[in-house]
Specification:
The structure holds two protein chains of two kinds. By secondary structure, chain A is an alpha/beta fold. Chain A has helices spanning 2-10, 24-34, 57-64, 97-109, 121-125, 156-174; strands at residues 45-51, 77-79, 88-92, 115-119, 147-149. Helix content of chain A is 37%, strand content 13%. In chain A, α2 (24-34) packs across α6. By secondary structure, chain B is α+β, with helices and mostly antiparallel strands. Chain B has helices at residues 4-7, 27-38, 89-99, 190-194, 199-206, 214-229, 235-263, 267-288, 308-334, 336-342, 350-355, 360-365, 372-375, 396-420, 469-480, 488-495, 499-503, and strands at residues 12-14, 17-18, 22-24, 43-50, 53-60, 65-71, 77-79, 102-104, 149-154, 166-172, 175-182, 297-298, 301-302, 435-442, 447-454, 460-466. In chain B, the strands form five sheets. Chain B has a five-stranded mixed β-sheet with strand order 1-3-6-5-4. Chain B has a four-stranded mixed β-sheet with strand order 2-14-15-16. A three-stranded antiparallel β-sheet of chain B has the order 9-10-11. In chain B, α5 runs antiparallel to α6 (214-229), α6 (214-229) runs antiparallel to α7 (235-263) and α9 runs antiparallel to α14. The chains are: A alpha/beta, B alpha+beta. At the A-B interface, α1, β1, α3 and α4 of A face α4, α8 and α9 of B.
């Protein structure tokens, strides 16, 4: 175990610089958010991920934002195991009818103030699964959504940019 | 012992089903086949409903031959296969939920995918007789009785970033006495959405049945459609599909090896494996414009060609992984605290793996060597040299080692494919004809079955995709028995079944 630990110490980190704040994507996201961010969360956000019926591609990419290249935690963002510890629900999937109640209950279990981020095309409006007998069709049909991160699935960089926008808009309100 | 083909000779053969035959069986023959399955003389690849009929795909492992058998369900009923052969149980429950077809003698009549929330009974077959009472939203779990037993309900929302499903543990102290799964939370009605769609639109849905297997699902779907259309994709496309499939296998196995170690609280492996996985996905993105290679395999070929720069990038990727991976393998193998968690945990015995025709790393870690790439080889695998590793131990450690060996095999295959891929076109436009096709493709998780029936316009009339998880989920319940509750995440990750692929 010592060898990989030591060699990691001697090498430069793989972590890539944060996406710049003047990135037009982020600016527009932050502008959208300012009206909805209701109070400050300091410099940190705890995120609870809820799969409301995705195909699991979004989960793969959400997991990837924790890898050494994106290193989500350096921004004070972290995934937590319970909605009771969360500020943000990160929801994926077209919201299947079989998951609707579980999503609502998870939302209710999250203390206010809370934000909802919907990730992926399905979470916006059901995507390819819209119109079927088994899906509600989009997260906003069940709970209020503050931010949508598009993509099928969104890349880790897209997810990171979206979450940073949320963090910055929360801080802007505090200043 | 007569072969499966001989046993099916008395059935009526349906024309236009390719490449293997479809046979209509009356109740007597159907029952005889169920007994044959129970005796272990053939394997069940899948069982699915249709408007007024039920089909099952059977594999004769000795003869390396597949057949689809149909029971035409007079009065919407057919003799239950699960009554003789338990692996058919969840298939029959699902087919009843979706099509209203009643398996006579079904030992477990609880609904499976239907949680009583769709608002319609058997949505894929509105013509079927309505049930007497609507499906209830409450679900009676199986009883476990005894002194000092307690229950632990987990899910559908889990603590990690994974898919939703419910696990009901009954434990005596720390030891699991019974695990019962309840799935269906991610049921999106994919098969209903596919009906009537043109091939291109249905292919997109096929690629989103299980995101981690998007290439393999699209690959199986495309091969089934091509079988029905009686067309062959160009040689370069055949090779590029295999390249994508091996990149997908490589990325998933690397992710899983790290993930399993992480569930034993050994985060160092996870950190290093995640770096390798990210490199694979970035190379895929640069070569095929999508990190997971979604929508890259299409009926008639592939959507994106591999450029010479792309080939160079993939060679650099395999060199990088080849250099980094052995160090991680020795880290895994030489960390005593990690081995203590892995070895002997979550043992799946070989007879269950065989009975359930369990494929992929779960089956191969428990002595079932079946690999579609070898046993029902499709091009280009029939002209490539590789091993399909098998172990007998059946524990978490064996499932990790199968993945390690498969990473090495996939690296070699990727090199051979990049070097050997012929030049030429990458796609043909298949001419639409009515027909039926079936295909089996080896995904990273195991064999994926695709079955399609196309109408005269070349649209989907019925499509069924059977994820390998169908055979693996029930075995997870068996493998966890007698283990401690705290080892469940480890066992679960070592199986890594798909929820979405199963729930469809």
């Amino acid at each position: 175990m010592r060898t990989p630990l030591l060699s990691s110490l001697l090498k430069r980190p793989l972590t890539e610089p944060a996406p710049p704040a003047d990135d037009p994507d982020i600016v527009s996201l932050a502008a959208k958010l300012e009206s909805t961010a209701r109070s400050t969360l300091g410099r940190s956000l705890s995120i609870r991920q809820v799969d409301a019926g995705s195909c699991n591609a979004c989960e793969l990419e959400i997991n990837a934002v924790s890898n050494a290249y994106y290193d989500l935690e350096r921004f004070g963002l972290r995934f937590v195991a319970s909605p009771r510890h969360a500020d943000v629900l990160l929801v994926t999937g077209p919201v299947t009818k079989n998951m609707r109640e579980a999503l609502l209950r998870t939302y209710d279990a999250t203390p206010a103030p809370k934000w909802v981020v919907a990730a992926g095309g399905c979470a916006l409006d059901g995507g390819l699964f819209a119109g079927g007998y088994a899906c509600v069709g989009g997260v906003s049909a069940v709970i209020r959504v503050d931010l949508h991160i598009p993509g099928c699935p969104p890349s880790p960089l897209d997810i990171l940019k979206g979450l940073l926008a949320l963090l910055r808009s929360a801080n802007l309100r505090a200043e | 012992m007569p072969t499966l083909a001989k046993a099916l000779a008395q059935g009526r053969k349906i024309e236009g089903h390719r490449p293997w035959p479809r046979i209509v069986a009356d109740d007597a023959l159907w029952r005889a086949l169920a007994v044959r399955l129970a005796e272990g003389r053939c394997s069940l690849l899948g069982l699915w409903g249709d408007a007024g009929a039920v089909h099952m795909a059977l594999l004769d492992e000795a003869e390396k031959w597949v057949a689809v058998v149909t029971n035409e369900c007079p009065n919407g009923r057919y003799p239950s296969v699960a009554r003789f052969h338990p692996p058919a149980l969840r298939f029959e429950r699902a087919a009843r939920d979706l099509f209203g077809l009643v398996p006579v003698g079904l030992p477990d009549v609880r609904p499976w995918l239907d949680h009583g929330r769709w608002g319609v009974p058997h949505p894929l077959n509105p013509a079927a007789a309505s049930p007497e009472a609507p499906v209830s939203t409450s679900y009676p779990f199986l009883a476990a009785e005894g002194e000092s037993l307690h229950q632990i309900p987990v899910g559908p929302v889990h603590a990690g970033i994974i898919e939703p499903g419910h696990f009901r543990f009954t434990a005596a102290g720390e030891t699991v006495v019974r695990l019962e799964e309840r799935l269906g939370y991610t049921h999106k009605g994919v098969e209903a959405l596919m009906a009537g769609k043109p091939i291109a639109e249905a292919a997109k849905l096929a690629g989103r049945v299980s995101g981690d297997s998007t290439v393999a699902c699209a690959y199986a779907f495309a091969r089934a459609v091509e079988a029905a259309f009686r067309c062959e994709p160009p040689p370069r496309a055949v090779w590029l599909r295999a390249l994508m499939a091996e990149l997908e296998r490589l990325a998933n196995h690397l992710g899983d090896i790290g993930g399993i170690c992480n569930d034993a609280s050994f985060a160092l492996m996870q950190a290093h494996c995640a770096v390798l996985r990210e490199r694979v996905l970035r190379a895929a993105d640069n070569c095929f414009s999508h990190r997971l290679m979604m929508d890259c395999v299409v009926a008639g070929g592939v959507a994106v060609d591999l450029s010479p720069e792309g080939a160079k990038e993939i060679r650099a990727l395999t060199d990088f992984v080849r250099q980094a991976f052995p160090k991680l393998v020795s880290l895994y193998d030489n960390t005593a605290s990690l081995q203590d968690r892995m070895v002997g945990t979550g043992r799946l015995n070989a007879s269950l793996a065989r009975q359930y025709a369990c494929g992929g790393y779960v089956g191969r870690a428990s002595g079932r060597a079946f690999d579609v790439r070898k046993d029902l080889a499709y091009p280009p695998y029939d002209s490539l040299a590789f091993d399909s590793p098998t172990l007998a131990e059946g524990d978490v450690n064996a499932r990790v080692w199968i993945r390690i060996r498969e990473v090495e095999q996939s690296l070699a295959l990727i090199g051979a494919i990049v070097d050997g891929a012929p030049a030429g076109p990458i796609r043909i436009e298949p001419a639409a004809i009515a027909g039926e096709g079936v295909a089996l493709v080896e995904g990273f998780r195991g064999d994926i079955l695709a079955w399609v029936r196309l109408d005269e316009a070349g649209r989907i009339s019925r499509c069924h995709l059977r994820d390998p998880s169908w055979a693996q989920w029930p075995l997870l319940e068996a493998a966890i028995g007698g283990n401690i509750v705290a080892d469940f995440p480890l066992c679960n990750k070592s199986f890594n079944c798909s929820y979405s692929g199963h729930d469809l």
